[in-house]
DNA sequence: TGCAAACTTGCAAACGCTTGCAGCCAGACA
DNA sequence: TGTCTGGCTGCAAGCGTTTGCAAGTTTGCA
């Protein structure tokens, strides 16, 4: 491999100074269009690739965004977030440096330390299941946005799914199909999603003049076995619900199995809707599962764009934009698991 | 935030020169244990975090490994690979810089270019479904290892699952349970896995003295609908197989559905085994699916370790280790989908 | 024709670290 | 006592960019 071409080679070839090349390439300074064009084409010809270590060192902008997540390997959630983040990052000429902490504080500390040593320009601190978190101390002073996580306060930007809205969308989908007797298979973890979706479920029923029957609410952990048992409780009643709203797709899968065991056909005898739109599951189920999508891709994208905004203002210091906390809309994806109630 | 502490602050505080601090921290040079210890504790007290942009610039080792993948968002495969890679990387004090190419050559080119600008020390070029690839030209001269992908030649290290072995493991699992009439639901893509698993299926049957009945082999794409249809072909025969070996878990899901529709119980009437061990699916299915695991975590780990080996020798140049291509063993994970054949 | 204003371009000093090489100091040996 | 040797430590020169500032060149206008 021939020696790597540096900015001085470009300068020599174009017959200008280092400064001019730098200006031409970065768009800074005042250059005549002619010069700029010439330098650029020479650089392209020479296949010049700036050394970002050097430019980062000097300019104090590494063009690297750190992405720290607690979980990355059991679901495609992180992948979708990463995809959104990455594509948005590319637009800013940023690249992502990611670490998985496995929710281990010791490891998280070391990982963040590593990112900081690499002088990342900002950090996306992500959780894969909407959680309330405390931002690690090492992160104070570092531009950070929280993803699928929020703190109690409003000192830092964050994006989470609109849990209540998602539940509303799901339940209204059922109501629109004619259902009035709608059971809810909740989950048991103590996370914001649990309460948010439950609240959404109750509020939506009431908003449509349906009295909330608390005995129609049951909970399970996210294993199908547990969900099956929870669904059984509801389906074995003589006054069983005509539709089930499930906390997530895995629980919906348990509900499917419970229905199947009892010879109940979906959606003829029982309609089911859930939240997640875990595509590889929802598509594979028979019939396809109607599910409200958690907007992972969009959250990743938003987080980066938000970071871009805050970093941009960072130079001008004081007029930094106030942190923003947003709840993102969750759209419904319909397949074939919802139909009118049996009469 | 107080001004960032640099190596000179440490030097001043410890009463030694920059050189000594650098040596003490990196373990290079000849230092008395006393000095080394002292410097280290001072550095720790000051909370010194070396600037990797600077050290990378000078030493020409960025401590960053690039990870380029074609697919990252629809399955947890990439996540598992990343986890393995990341944990191995941390041991070498490396960090991962990740790009997703969406299999778009233009975008791939730009992404690799970005990694190169950041002066990554090496690259893991990953595909999420064992494929034959041509290594992008931009990568020549850059230490690279292929993951879940291979070229025709042996110029570059690579790791792929042992497809034939995986098929053998699956089929022998069925044979061990007593099955002799074993159908195969293959896939239709033209990738090494297709041929490898098919060869493994045939070879294993023969090795056990079972004649291969080509009419028991059928194929579908990886949608459950298509798999359902393919399974139906086999299950509707009067001499239907007592067991089904499926190309992957999604196809197995289709097979489950076809069985269900026909009132065939698993594993009593029909045994099913597949390859993937896509846990979130295999665990959720009823009954749990016996599946041969694709060793994603281990492949990620191996790729990094291999890169470490090749980079280490890179200084000594000529005695660089010869590239190594390995096929990784795939272990069987049993659940409840295989039993003895009905008599 | 002369001079300021407006453009262009280049100089040279960092950025924070690593590293080849030289210097220093003890103790050992003659 | 003088000269070596070998173990420790420090000097200073970069690594490849960016950027504050200054210098040089046009252009416009009186």
UniProtKB/TrEMBL annotation, chains A, B:
Domain HTH lacI-type: 5-59
Molecular function GO labels: DNA-binding transcription factor activity; transcription cis-regulatory region binding
Pfam families: LacI, Peripla_BP_1
InterPro entries per UniProt: HTH_LacI (IPR000843), Lambda_DNA-bd_dom_sf (IPR010982), Peripla_BP/Lac1_sug-bd_dom (IPR001761), Peripla_BP_I (IPR028082)
Keywords linked to the UniProt accession: DNA-binding, Repressor, Transcription, Transcription regulation
PROSITE patterns: HTH_LACI_1 (PS00356), HTH_LACI_2 (PS50932)
Protein name according to UniProt: Transcriptional regulator, LacI family
Lineage: Bacteria, Bacillati, Actinomycetota, Actinomycetes, Micrococcales
């Amino acid at each position: 491999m021939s020696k790597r071409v540096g900015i001085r080679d470009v300068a020599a070839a174009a017959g200008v100074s280092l400064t001019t090349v730098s200006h031409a390439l970065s768009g800074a300074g005042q250059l005549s269009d002619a010069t700029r064009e010439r330098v650029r084409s020479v650089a392209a010809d020479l296949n010049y690739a700036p050394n970002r270590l050097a430019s980062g060192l000097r300019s104090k902008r590494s063009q690297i965004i750190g992405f720290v997540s607690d979980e990355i390997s059991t679901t495609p959630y992180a992948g979708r977030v990463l995809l959104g983040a990455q594509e948005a990052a590319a637009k800013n000429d940023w690249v992502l440096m990611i670490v998985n902490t496995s929710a281990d504080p010791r490891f998280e500390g070391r990982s963040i330390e590593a990112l900081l040593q690499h002088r990342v320009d900002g950090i996306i601190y992500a959780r894969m299941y909407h959680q309330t978190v405390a931002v690690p101390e090492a992160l104070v002073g570092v531009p950070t946005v929280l993803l699928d996580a929020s703190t109690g306060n409003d000192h830092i930007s964050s994006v989470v799914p609109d849990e209540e809205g998602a539940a509303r969308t799901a339940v209204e989908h059922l109501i629109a199909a004619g259902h009035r007797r709608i059971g809810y298979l909740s989950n048991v973890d103590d996370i914001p999603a649990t309460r948010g979706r439950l609240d959404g479920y109750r509020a939506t029923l009431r908003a449509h003049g349906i009295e909330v029957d608390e005995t129609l609410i049951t909970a399970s952990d996210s294993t199908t076995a547990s969900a099956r048992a929870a669904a059984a409780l509801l389906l074995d009643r003589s006054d069983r619900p005509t539709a089930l709203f499930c906390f997530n797709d895995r629980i919906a899968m348990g509900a499917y199995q419970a229905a199947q065991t009892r010879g109940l056909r979906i959606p003829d005898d029982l309609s089911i809707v859930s939240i997640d739109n875990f595509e590889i599951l929802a598509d594979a189920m028979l019939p396809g599962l109607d599910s409200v999508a958690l907007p992972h891709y969009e959250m990743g994208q938003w987080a980066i764009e938000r970071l871009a905004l805050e970093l941009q203002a960072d130079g001008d210091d004081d007029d930094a934009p106030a942190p923003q906390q947003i709840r993102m809309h969750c759209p419904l994806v319909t397949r074939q698991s919802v139909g009118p109630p049996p009469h």
